[in-house]
UniProtKB/TrEMBL annotation:
DNA-binding region listed in the record: 39-58
SUPFAM superfamilies per record: Homeodomain-like, Tetracyclin repressor-like, C-terminal domain
An MF annotation (GO) of this entry: transcription cis-regulatory region binding
Keyword flag Disulfide bond: no
Provenance organism: Microbacterium invictum
Keywords carried by this UniProt record: DNA-binding, Transcription, Transcription regulation
Protein name per Swiss-Prot or TrEMBL: AcrR family transcriptional regulator
Domain HTH tetR-type: 16-76
Family matches, as PROSITE patterns: HTH_TETR_2
Statement: the UniProt record of this protein carries the keyword Disulfide bond: no
Pfam families hit by this protein: TetR_C_24, TetR_N
Amino acid sequence: MTVHSGETTARRGRPGYDRDQVLAVAVQLFNEQGYDATSVADLASRLGLTKSALYHHFSSKEELLAIALETALSGLEAVLDRALAVEAPASDRLTAVISGAVGVLTDELAPVTLLLRLRGNSAVETAALERRRVFDQQVTALVRAAQDEGRIRTDVDAGVATRLIFGMINSVVEWYRPDGRVDPDLLAQDVLRVALDGLHPREQ
């Protein structure tokens, strides 16, 4: 009987997943167990593959981490870059960043969750945390510019305002589910209302 190559592959336990599928399972497992606590053997077991089959797709556990973090960070940085490139009041650009950040979170929930749980225990994690720090600094500068325009109250420190805004955005990873009843576009609008209404200048 002739055995087709696809059947041979399945019988040998060779990868039945493409790279994106392996990455998705890896990120899910990292989020469940913690990156440091997850071994390559754990991942191979979850996938039903041998370690050698897993290495067919990725060279190391750290490579999986790096790719996932790049997905999250590049999404957030792209949102900020687009907002900064627009000729508009700082408050409008800040609105775009907040709305866009919520969109990145809901579109890339698992990678962003992984980013938010980093402990900085490796060079890859440290580099990612530095990029987050730079992102936060740029958003803080936007908040400060909006204060200078008179569009945001000045009795709240710009850095504190940024942390409070993104504290709320980041908390979404704890309860948002893509298959749930919350519409991601409406969620972005709700976050904007709650985040910015309290920062509007008080009427004299």
